[in-house]
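#struct-help
A.M.: can someone run this one for me? Single chain, 141 residues.
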Amino acid sequence: MAGSVVEPVFLLAHDVFDLPMIGNSIYSPRFTLVIPLVLLVMAGCRGKAALTPQQAEGQRVYDVGCAHCHEENDLRLKKVPPDLHGVFDKARLPGGEAATDANVEQVLMKGKGMMPSFAYQMSREQMAAVIAYLHAGIRKE
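D.P.: on it. Structure tokens below:
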């Protein structure tokens, strides 16, 4: 087991919980309950998945062109636009349409309700990047 990921966990358990060592292993009924918990905590401590270059560009475009209304509402709109993070996790868009790339692109191109068209402010590549970013489902903290 030398050099494995589990070895530090054994040493941690030995030091923290003062468990007896028998040869190269630790024996304790408590340890059989502690080790799965420690491994679960270690597994949950991973960083966020990195964005692809297209998603990163989409995040940049979103932050500049969309977040003012859809997150911060710093324009003080009376009707607050919907939060778009996780929009593809649902079957329907906030307006009721199916949550598809084509429908999101259509809203970007033509606008909807109080939302203006972005057909002349964003290129097709930028729209595709925003859609890719929204697919990532990243929620800002």
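A.M.: thanks! The radius of gyration is 24 Å.
D.P.: also worth noting: The chain has two domains: 6-44, 53-136.
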